[in-house]
């Protein structure tokens, strides 16, 4: 039997609330299935389950629980039957059941009036906690193999190596999503992640002005005969060019763990999305380098809509290997980003502007876009950063190949 | 001088050769203590030295620790280089006033005008059925006192060479010789003619746990490490060698590789040097710890006389092995 735990949807999440179960006890689940809607500071997130088996107990809806709390028991295929809530409750007074503690906070409350802590602090060795912080994992969400079941270095290292699976879309209902997120909570989460970034990451910054005329011309030609819904935005070309450049200069696609670079598996671009009423999320566009502009446009529309309305999937929050922020046509001319730890780079695009530009010795009007890179100096140097910017610039000069 | 040093010798012989070298090298140097002359030393360390150096250099004293240790302090102040022997560290308590209030403080209270280059050797530890008044390990207490240096030779090499470094030091230096180690034998490397009295040493390398120890617990830890190796656990064994000043850096360096620490000390746990080490790890290396620090110490009783009880009261190899297993293998 395995436990389905409250996931850490980013380094800045501490608690979440199950607002809806999309499965019932007895339901069969497979990895990638969306099983619950969890309310976090990033809004309501569709949480995927990476276990294969049959759902046993579920925590009641509406309880705010820490990351790592057991949300459900899953009887893995071929395993023992799940203990029911009733059975496990009645067993509590008779025998201690360390393997199957009752679910959730309420159920864990002592029945005998003893002074058992209601929500006992998870045992994590100091070294493991430190390491987890470095690589952006929540150690409380891991299972421990150390003294007294403590989470130790080895557990964190193993979890850090485990590739985070990319889930196939599940059939589960999306109608019930609540779009709300708590702006105060989100502000706190952003504050904590960005303060950590500025505290720990030695940023360096590069920027370059890119001639966007060719790309603009290609876009106009493409969009001319299409309905508004099928038209492409400049952002798509920026995204695709960046993803392709990251393929060539992969040292910016991944994570800094304990000062050491760990390459990302796949290029999953976190697309910075401003939320109405304030706030920001950067969910992943998976495998961005392998998708056509049309597919990317669709993915981006879908993502932005779900980011604003609720319904992001947990893997979209945990998978990004790099972040791209594009300010759009009402944004500023340039941006120097703050890296989202433990990523190592954020690539920024300002608004496309028309300016005098020298082409073949002549001053002409050109559409230009400011391209910037903020990168982690622990894992790369400016020379390499320059190569990444050059590669992005080059791809934008041949939009037909994007 | 080392031409007549046999390559293989006992810890006792190493102590004696060190004293003999010191007497030959420096006319200011002399030995003083109970039964050090005619009787040849309670543990036979000074046997034969009276005949060789005469009663002016090998001085038998009355059974009066506060008196002869005080005389040693005075002699050191006056420019001599006394080596005072206290029969067992239990008896050093009678001389504690001289050691702490005079030897350790005069350099400080005189604003550095007077040095006390005194060396006090004493026997420490249990394991020879000498009962509760001759078997305790009090070196941890002395390590509490600023102004003293506290040496705990755990190898024949350190027994052979630490004395010279102690005599060269302008501070009062206490050397604790473990009574069980006197019969220990080892090869001496003729290339080694001096040792430092500042650093701990890694006596065996390993990656899974740091065993921090000294004195007679060192051979026990090495035996435990040997046994653990057959189970696939690689223990690093650190010989502290010097309890004051304590070389925390070497212990922490080891911990940054092993992330686990077991301290083995024949002293009692409460208020001990093992407690001090554990506290320093908590203060300065908390985030290196991947498991609780464990301590294997003497039971908190006066050391018993009966052999089986004495054995049971002291850290033994199986206790060390068990403590290591408890932090290395999942609990």
Q: Provide the succession of SSEs of chain B.
A: EHEHEHEHHEHEHEEEEHEEHEHEHH
Number of domains of chain B: 2
**Count of helices of chain B?**
12
Radius of gyration of chain A: 23 Å
The assigned structural class of chain B equals: alpha/beta
Strand order of the largest sheet of chain B: 3-2-4-5-7-6-12
Biggest beta sheet attributes of chain A: 7 strands, mixed
Spans of chain A with pLDDT under 50 lasting ≥5 residues?
Answer: 79-102, 104-118, 164-179
Largest interface: A-B, 14 and 12 residues
Q: Quick one: CATH class of the largest domain in chain A?
A: Alpha Beta
Give the overall pLDDT of chain A as a whole number. 80
Question: What order do the helices and strands of chain A follow?
Answer: EEEEEEEEHHHHHEHHEEEEEEHEHEEEEH
Kindly, what is the distance between the CA atoms of the first and last residues of chain B, rounded to a whole number of angstroms?
55 Å
**What's the Cα radius of gyration of chain B?**
20 Å
Could you explain the architecture of this structure?
Chain A has 402 residues and is an alpha+beta fold. Chain A has three domains: 2-118, RNA polymerase II/Efflux pump adaptor protein, barrel-sandwich hybrid domain (OB fold (Dihydrolipoamide Acetyltransferase, E2P), Beta Barrel), CATH 2.40.50; 121-162, E3-binding domain (Dihydrolipoamide Transferase), CATH 4.10.320; 183-401, Chloramphenicol Acetyltransferase (2-Layer Sandwich), CATH 3.30.559.10. Chain A has ten helices and 20 strands. Chain A has helices at 85-94, 104-108, 126-135, 153-161, 183-200, 213-224, 234-248, 293-309, 314-318, 382-397; strands at residues 2-5, 15-21, 28-29, 33-40, 43-49, 53-58, 64-66, 70-76, 203-211, 254-257, 260-263, 269-271, 273-274, 280-281, 284-285, 312-313, 322-326, 345-349, 353-359, 362-376. In chain A, the strands form five sheets. In chain A, strands 9, 12, 15, 17, 18, 19 and 20 form a seven-stranded mixed β-sheet that branches. In chain A, strand 10 (254-257) and strand 11 (260-263) form a beta hairpin. Chain A starts with a strand and ends in a 5-residue tail after the last helix. Mean pLDDT of chain A is 80; it is low at 79-102, 104-118 and 164-179. Chain B is of the alpha/beta class and 331 residues long. Chain B folds into two domains: 2-187, Thiamin diphosphate (ThDP)-binding fold, Pyr/PP domains (Rossmann fold); 201-328, 3-Layer(aba) Sandwich (Rossmann fold), CATH 3.40.50. Helix content of chain B is 35%, strand content 20%. Chain B is built from twelve helices and 14 strands. Chain B has a seven-stranded mixed β-sheet with strand order 3-2-4-5-7-6-12, with helices on both faces. In chain B, strands 9-11-10-13-14 form a five-stranded mixed β-sheet, with helices on both faces. In chain B, strands 1-8 form a two-stranded antiparallel ribbon. In chain B, strand 10, helix 8 (217-229) and strand 11 (235-239) form a beta-alpha-beta unit. The chains are: A alpha+beta (402), B alpha/beta (331). The interface between A and B is medium-sized, with 14 and 12 residues.
């Amino acid at each position: 039997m395995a436990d389905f735990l409250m996931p850490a949807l980013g380094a800045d999440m501490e608690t979440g609330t199950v607002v809806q179960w999309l499965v019932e006890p007895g339901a069969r689940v497979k990895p990638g299935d969306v099983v619950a809607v969890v309310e976090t500071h990033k809004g309501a997130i569709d949480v995927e389950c990476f276990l294969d088996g049959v759902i046993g107990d579920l925590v009641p809806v509406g309880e705010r629980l820490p990351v790592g709390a057991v949300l459900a028991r899953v009887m893995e295929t071929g395993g023992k039957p799940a203990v029911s809530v009733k059975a496990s409750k009645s067993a509590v007074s008779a025998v201690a059941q360390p393997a199957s503690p009752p679910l959730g906070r309420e159920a864990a409350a002592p029945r005998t009036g003893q002074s058992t802590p209601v929500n006992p602090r998870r045992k994590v060795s100091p070294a493991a906690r430190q390491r987890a912080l470095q690589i952006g994992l929540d150690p409380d969400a891991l299972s421990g193999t150390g003294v007294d079941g403590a989470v130790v270095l080895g557990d964190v290292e193993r979890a850090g190596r485990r590739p985070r699976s990319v889930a196939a879309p599940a059939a589960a209902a999306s109608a019930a999503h609540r779009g709300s997120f708590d702006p105060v909570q989100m502000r706190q989460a952003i504050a904590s992640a960005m303060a950590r970034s500025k505290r720990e990451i030695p940023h360096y910054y590069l920027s370059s002005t890119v001639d966007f005329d060719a790309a603009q011309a290609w876009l106009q030609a493409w969009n001319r005969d299409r309905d508004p819904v099928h038209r492409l935005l400049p952002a798509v070309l920026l995204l695709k060019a960046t993803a392709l450049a990251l393929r060539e200069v992969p040292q910016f696609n991944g994570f800094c763990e304990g000062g050491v670079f760990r390459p990302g598996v796949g290029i999953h671009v976190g697309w910075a999305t401003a939320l109405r009423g304030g706030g920001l999320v950067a969910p992943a566009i998976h495998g961005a380098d392998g998708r056509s502009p049309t597919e990317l446009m669709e993915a981006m529309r879908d993502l932005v809509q779900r980011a604003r309305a609720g319904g992001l999937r947990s893997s979209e929050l945990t998978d990004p290997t790099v972040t791209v922020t594009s300010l759009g046509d009402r944004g500023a001319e340039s941006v120097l980003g703050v890296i989202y730890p433990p990523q190592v780079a954020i690539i920024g695009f300002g608004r496309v502007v028309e300016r005098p530009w020298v082409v073949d010795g002549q001053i002409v009007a050109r559409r230009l876009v400011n391209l910037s890179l903020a990168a982690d100096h622990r894992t790369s140097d400016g020379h390499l950063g320059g190569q990444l910017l050059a590669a992005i610039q080059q791809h934008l000069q041949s939009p037909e190949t994007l | 001088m080392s031409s007549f040093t046999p390559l293989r010798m006992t810890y006792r012989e190493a102590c004696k050769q060190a004293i003999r070298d010191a007497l030959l090298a420096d006319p200011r140097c002399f030995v003083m203590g109970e039964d050090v002359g005619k009787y040849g030393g309670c543990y036979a360390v000074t046997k034969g030295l009276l005949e060789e150096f005469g009663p002016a250099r090998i001085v038998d004293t009355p059974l009066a620790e506060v008196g002869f240790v005080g005389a040693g302090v005075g002699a050191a102040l006056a420019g001599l280089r006394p080596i005072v022997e206290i029969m067992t560290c239990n008896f050093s308590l009678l001389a504690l006033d001289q050691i702490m209030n005079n030897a350790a403080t005069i350099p400080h209270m005189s604003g550095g005008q007077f040095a006390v280059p005194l060396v006090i050797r004493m026997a420490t530890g249990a394991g020879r059925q000498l009962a509760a008044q001759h078997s305790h390990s009090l070196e941890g207490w002395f390590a509490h006192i600023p102004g003293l240096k506290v040496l705990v030779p755990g190898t024949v090499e350190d027994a052979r060479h630490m004395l010279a470094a102690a005599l060269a030091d302008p501070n009062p230096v206490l050397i604790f010789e473990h009574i069980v180690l006197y019969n220990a034998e080892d090869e001496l490397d003729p290339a080694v003619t001096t040792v430092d009295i500042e650093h701990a040493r890694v006596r065996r390398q390993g990656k899974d746990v740091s065993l921090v120890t000294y004195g007679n617990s060192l051979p026990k830890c090495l035996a435990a490490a040997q046994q653990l190796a057959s189970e696939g656990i690689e223990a690093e064994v650190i010989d502290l060698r010097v309890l004051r000043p304590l070389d925390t850096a070497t212990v922490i360096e080891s911990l940054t590789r092993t992330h686990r620490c077991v301290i083995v000390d024949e002293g009692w746990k409460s208020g001990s040097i093992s407690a001090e080490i554990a506290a320093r790890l908590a203060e300065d290396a908390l985030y290196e710890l991947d498991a609780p620090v464990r301590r294997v110490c003497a039971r908190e009783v006066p050391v018993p006389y009966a052999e089986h009880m004495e054995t049971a009261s002291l850290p033994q190899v199986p206790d060390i092995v068990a403590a290591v297993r408890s932090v290395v293998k999942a609990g």
